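Ticket #4471: structure export looks truncated?
Reporter: QA, pipeline team
Priority: medium

Steps to reproduce: submit the single chain below to the structure queue and open the exported record.
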Amino acid sequence: MSRVKVKICGVRTLEEAQAAVDAGADALGFNFWSPSARYIEPHAAREVITSVTPTVCTVGVFVNEEGSRIVDIASELGLNAVQLHGDESPEFCEGLASIKTFKTIKAIRVGQDFDLGVIESYRVNMILLDSSSEGSYGGTGRRFDWRIAIEAKHLVPIILAGGLTTENVWDAITQVRPAAIDVCSGVEAEPGRKDMDKMRSFMAEAARANAQLNQ
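Actual output as written to the record:
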């Protein structure tokens, strides 16, 4: 059984990035949507990225952004992946996915009566499933029905997000067994500021769950 990878999203400082890497994070997410409390200027993200180990995956989070700007930022920062967290169409996502210098992740919000067929319409590298909340593009701190993720992972590699915390990450990893999990608000002191102790505790519990999977 391969290990479920962990992405710490909403990183805004080098201190947060280094703490996440030291705790065992596989990927760091940088939010380039300016209305978000987790927003980081691309030039500031570049300073962080160039200061951490190149072995960690770097992901740029975008919401309804122009394709040309996504490509420009991804190229300038050397991002490993872009995460499209808005209302991007399947055609838009497929166009970005055709660019092989980075991977493309489409975030899909899961609400009541979710149709798994929506996932099949996106030709991307991975699908991130997050909780649906009116007027929000993620970071809600809410869970959705994980049975949907269990079904979805048979269609495409899944990143599980939405309401993950130290208290439920064990269940998320051992029950759902996605390709990766994504945590943001669950390791924050407040929106836009990470809690280092929460982050270390979360990563320790994730490591314990992964060890259980591989026994």
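Status: closed, not a bug. The export was complete when the record was re-opened. Leaving a note from the reviewer for reference: The two ends are 9 Å apart (CA to CA).
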